[in-house]
Description:
By secondary structure, this protein is α/β, with parallel strands linked by helices. Helix content is 49%, strand content 10%.
Amino acid sequence: xxxxxxxxxxxxxxxxxxxxxxxxxxxxxxxxxxxxxxxxxxxxxxxxxxxxxxxxxxxxxxxxxxxxxxxxxxxxxxxxxxxxxxxxxxxxxxxxxxxxxxxxxxxxxxxxxxxxxxxxxxxxxxxxxxxxxxxxxxxxxxxxxxxxxxxxxxxxxxxxxxxxxxxxxxxxxxxxxxxxxxxxxxxxxxxxxxxxxxxxxxxxxxxxxxxxxxxxxxxxxxxxxxxxxxxxxxxxxxxxxxxxxxxxxxxxxxxxxxxxxxxxxxxxxxxxxxxxxxxxxxxxxxxxxxxxxxxxxxxxxxxxxxxxxxxxxxxxxxxxxxxxxxxxxxxxxxxxxxxxxxxxxxxxxxxxxxxxxxxxxxxxxxxxxxxxxxxxxxxxxxxxxxxxxxxxxxxxxxxxxxxxxxxxxxxxxxxxxxxxxxxxxxxxxxxxxxxxxxxxxxxxxxxxxxxxxxxxxxxxxxxxxxxxxxxxxxxxxxxxxxxxxxxxxxxxxxxxxxxxxxxxxxxxxxxxxxxxxxxxxxxxxxxxxxxxxxxxxxxxxxxxxxxxxxxxxxxxxxxxxxxxxxxxxxxxxxxxxxxxxxxxxxxxxxxxxxxxxxxxxxxxxxxxxxxxxxxxxxxxxxxxxxxxxxxxxxxxxxxxxxxxxxxxxxxxxxxxxxxxxxxxxxxxxxxxxxxxxxxxxxxxxxxxxxxxxxxxxxxxxxxxxxxxxxxxxxxxxxxxxxxxxxxxxxxxxxxxxxxxxxxxxxxxxxxxxxxxxxxxxxxxxxxxxxxxxxxxxxxxxxxxxxxxxxxxxxxxxxxxxxxxxxxxxxxxxxxxxxxxxxxxxxxxxxxxxxxxxxxxxxxxxxxxxxxxxxxxxxxxxxxxxxxxxxxxxxxxxxxxxxxxxxxxxxxxxxxxxxxxxxxxxxxxxxxxxxxxxxxxxxxxxxxxxxxxxxxxxxxxxxxxxxxxxxxxxxxxxxxxxxxxxxxxxxxxxxxxxxxxxxxxxxxxxxxxxxxxxxxxxxxxxxxxxxxxxxxxxxxxxxxxxxxxxxxxxxxxxxxxxxxxxxxxxxx
Length: 1051
């Protein structure tokens, strides 16, 4: 029953909620505004606004020219393609618009909430730029009508007597001057009061509809009585009907033959014996009816296109013409010329703006009585109506108007009339005045809508540098946004050519429509639970087809404009991604990311990575202080230097306690980890585990970290500080248990010692070396890590040096040679040095030879391998068992499981010793011939030896073979501890002395880390051994392999 009041409250909130609330993302603000009563239905709210926005300047000023240049069939294909694109986009838009309440904001709101803030911001700004350039196009159309058809005498830069580039420059300058004046006036009107613009909208729409009806009426009238619009043709060249009244060279009068005004245009006097233009003398004058009518059959002539180069004369097909091909064309200003070079893709770019404007209904969604019903019906009806008008007009123009008149862009052949006006009834002035007012109205609508769109983007706060444009007057009018819009619009007006501006705005609109289709397709395919549109007549294939059409049209219109538009959108996308505000709008891109991640994880589970793809996927175990802050931040600096943003990184921390009591501390710890990761630029995930003790919590992290195939394979943990202090004894015990667990889990382990001395990400080493002491083969980790570190700018200039240890009976020169060859095949640049030590110096350190090439070569010779096969065998060294190949004498090769130790009393005889810990690997079999003595055959064929720091058994000559068997291993721990410890420390000191001698000045020393003893009573001795081994070294990275090869010589 307690839920009843809550439901009532919810319904009350929904009842008074205002869709147009200014702060839509602030839930509290929803209660502060009471909505006005919705008042507009489908007709007034969606259908008529869409009609007004779709019909525009291109229909009146360029449609006839498009039909003439592209032909009826070509133009119909363009119109059909563009109208199909907008229809498919409208279907996608209807699905999105009916999937919940769409506040005012139109396409920007829909895309940003469907595809996320990055896409929303990028496409929203593109849509804004498109709308702004549309305003420039409408203003240029308005000036073109004014200066060419209504008041040519108003031109500031006179065109009289000019021809070619000069005349073109004068026309463009007139457009710039008048365009700037009209833009200033329109911006002032919008600034003073938008309500006047909205009131005049219906008047402007009435002008458009009346103009279109006048054209249809004119077409019908041509079937009964075609209008009289003669055009004059000299030879086959169309003449500009200006400066003459009769289309003839001479006329007969009572007193004889008299020359006409046309004669005087081509000759130097009015007399018959005057010197005239050669082409004028050699060709006849003919008069052709410009509007022959729908029944004339002219459609056949206009079916196919006629494309022209700039400056070519518009010619009529089928009329004989006599011209000297070598003679220059004179009196060019007397002919109708092509003002631009035309081609099919140009026509697409010029035409497409005439089908834009389909978003007008969705932009008014806040004022609609039932937006989810009105937007689909009104928009699709409007597109159907306009598409029908456009497609029918293509055939009407082709069937009624002479081809040369269609190709005459400015109506110069029909006495300077607007070409579409010549077809209108009752007078051409109906079209001229109607189109003038419609372009004015469309320009005002663009200057009204664009600033509001920019203001909506700015108020969302996703693009920081646009926030200033979110402010406005006290009543909310976007003053600053209007100022920016006017400036951008002015840049379009300075271009001054309608044909050059049209493709620019085509790009931006096409990009916007493409992302509307993408949003719908994405939501449908992902089947997100919230995707429940009321509009059911959509399908992802339609959206995908619409998206493909938009992309194709972008490159068809202009490939370089398309690339520029995409670069602009891409730059905005990346800017929002890096600098924008974090917004969670439940967008489809997040759903797509989840689906892609799931798919990738499922693929990763198919098997372990190949050696070539292996890289350390780190689990970083960070220690926390009492305030849940990270104790050693440099651990994450090292992580960044190792990873460089690649692969998986999990930064984990362990807390002691219970989950119920310590959850707030865990939250603080996770926040602290994320903050430090962001500071150190570590890309990865953070995880905090709470358990009754730190040991178990760390164990849980190692076991449960990662997901599916995205698992860590390497653990990074710092050396326990102050481990010798009594109160910290648990720390080092936990550390040794961690080493045991990583070994059991076959994970690699990296232990940086003196982590505070490691460089930060901002430091740079300009010289120095990274020294690798390769004592035990660990799968290649020691080789791979310096290579990865040197990819980072901190270590980039450091050289790599590799030291390996030879015993007295080893051939040091051959070892160095073989190791150098191996590194060459690994494509690793490093200096190689072989350090010779007495057997007793390294006996206590479990030792495995890495590259004793001399013995391998001897084996290969014995089995007579070819040279190529021998080279391949170089790699197999790293694939062999972890036991060393050791040469006992020049003619014998044996497999040694651990390093022998010399007794002080006897230096002649090597004593057999065995490791305690054996890791079985059934895939690696020892060759029977490699086993020399019973004491060395403890590991059965198939056993794999793992390097381990163990208690060693001191045998003597007469020790029976049983001492090396598992039963004999029990006696190993009966050895006197003092003697063992002395030898162990002796080994550590000797090795440490050699390392300090060679690597004192190294920037980093990498060492094999032996495994801990099985017997936990030797743990403290193990820590002492490592401490002595690394004493006096500034930065040390102890490395323990994970039991698999991580580096290969193959490509």
